[in-house]
Amino acid sequence: MTDNPVIIAGGGIGGLATALTLHQIGVPCVVFEAVREMRPLGVGINMQPNAVRELYDLGITEDDLDKVGVPAKEWALVGLNGNDIYSEPRGKLAGYNWPQYAVHRGEFHMLLYRKLVERAGKDVVRLGQRVIGYRKNADGSVTALIEGADGAKTDASGALLIGADGIHSAIRAQMHPAQPPIHWGGAIMWRGTTLGKPIRSGASFVGLGTHKQRVVFYPISPPDPQTGLAIINWIVEITADNSEGWKQSGWFRQVPASEFAHHFKDWVWDWFDVPALIAKADSIFENPMIDRDPVPTWSDGPVVLLGDAAHAMYPTGSNGGSQAVIDARTLGAAMIGHGVTADALAAYNAKLCGPISALILRNRGAGPFGLLNMVDERCGGTFENIDDVIPPKERADFMAGYKAAAGFAIETLNKAARTIPEGARVKQKVPS
Which are the contacts of 70, defined by CB distance < 8 A and separation ≥ 6? Predict the structure, then answer.
């Protein structure tokens, strides 16, 4: 193994999970992150049991995760009159050996950052420095081209370069210069958090509506013992005409409720009041539902893509953040087998690029929310008995197919060996 560190472009969830993994297996690394200060940005995301398993193996504990989220107990789709379409327990209640967590994305991100700095030192993350490209060297190493927050250009050489720099990845753009632009399918999402009383199990993920108009909500904190109120993460979504493309100057912006609340003014039931949820939000963010077309490979010699840089996907399956963690662990396992080499990157690419590219396209078809569309097509979203609309076996088969594609089928995951064996480390080259 070369003395050069592995360079990681991007300090998001994928980049930090990769750095924690490399530190665990004895591989020196450095993370270059564009922001000048790490802050807890974003709202709720779900970490699926396959990712929580890897977090535990990284030494991130249940107590750590309880400080940034709550174990999910149920996943449910309901019709427009509140009747159940499909519901199932989640995490350990479903038979997994690990829980599923609904977490505040920003607080989870900061948890990973704190853990990395505690273990590897504060210099492991270089803030205010964006990787804008790379140069492959004759000796097999790679040089990252870096732009500082002040515009100054520098570079850094390393054994490998991991492009974990998100959907706008400069590493991916250089690797695939002819890639199509970001894909927007027409859905617009507004996201926020509101203090409210959890419903159903108290930790349920609930979706209702269709691809034309949909609401998803779930708690990302336990209820306050005095008030019974929890932080409810919510997403409301409509599908618009995308024939002329996205008209806003950016893909993410803070907006007032008045810009979109009228779409949901009639979504009021005795068990759920969407207008009130929106009106009481702390802050609201708008972004179109976007992804990127799959690319044929994530690797280019000593350079590889990871996380959203590799597979930005619609958030319909609640597995974007989870997959970034799986990427990091799979890459670490490849280094255990092949060393800190381009062969390790090729092995990681061979294992994940094909199936996860297929998942990107599957999520465009509404992912597990496809059941809502089926109900809408068959009965307009209102029914008395779901069995008369979609038979139980058809519903179960639909969900089983998605879980298998996303890598968290229960029996398969429970029986799988650890991705990285306990105590495994990459063998260092002995000096001659």
Answer: 101, 102, 103, 203, 219, 220, 221, 222, 230
CA angle at 307 for the pair 60 and 313, rounded to the nearest 5°: 120
Q: Which has the closest alpha carbon to 408: 54, 5, 10, 44? A: 54
* Whole-Å CA distances, 234 to 80, 90, 191, 249, 317: 17, 19, 6, 24, 15
* C-alpha span between 335 and 379 (Å, rounded): 52
Given a cut of 70, the residues of the chain with pLDDT beneath it are 1-3, 249, 316-318, 365-367, 405-408, 428-432
Residues 401 and 371: their CA atoms lie apart, in Å, by: 12
| Beta carbons of 82 and 384 less than 8 angstroms apart | no
Q: For residue 334, give every residue at least 6 positions away whose Cβ sits within 8 Å of its Cβ, in sequence order, or none.
A: 344, 345, 347, 348, 351
What would the two tokens of residue 28 be? 């020196």
Positive/negative CA dihedral, 272, 274, 279, 285: positive
Cβ-Cβ contacts under 8 Å for 64 (sequence gap 6 or more): 111, 115
Closest CA to 86 of 317, 380, 389: 389
DSSP for 77-127, written as a single string: EE-TTS-EEEEEE-GGGGT-SS--EEEEHHHHHHHHHHHHHHHH-GGGEEE
pLDDT at site 432: 33
pLDDT of residue 244: 77
Contact 53, 324 (CB under 8 A): no
Q: What would the DSSP string read from start to end of 171-221?
A: HHHHH-TTPPPPEEEEEEEEEEEEEE---TTTTEEEEEE-SSEEEEEEESS
Cα dihedral across residues 153, 156, 160, 163: positive or negative: negative
Q: From CA 188, how far away is CA 416, in angstroms rounded? A: 38
Tens digit of pLDDT for each residue in 280-331? 998 899 999 899 999 999 999 999 999 999 999 887 666 789 999 999 999 9
| Token code pair at residue 401 | 């197919």
What's the pTM value of the predicted model, to 2 decimals?
0.93
Task: Report yes or no: 12 and 40 within 8 Å, Cβ to Cβ.
Answer: no
**Is CATH 3.90.1150.10 the classification given to domain 6-41+105-181+293-366?**
no
Torsion of CA 77, 79, 80, 82, to 10 degrees: -80
* Residue of 98, 28, 112 lying closest to 68 (CA atoms): 112
- Count, residues in the chain: 432
Strands 161-163 and 303-305, how do they pair? parallel
Buried b (16+ CB within 10 A) or exposed e, 130-150: bbbbbeeeeeebbbbbbbeee
- CA-CA distance, 387 to 371, in Å (whole number)? 13
Q: Which of 89, 96, 109 is nearest to 43 (CA)?
A: 109
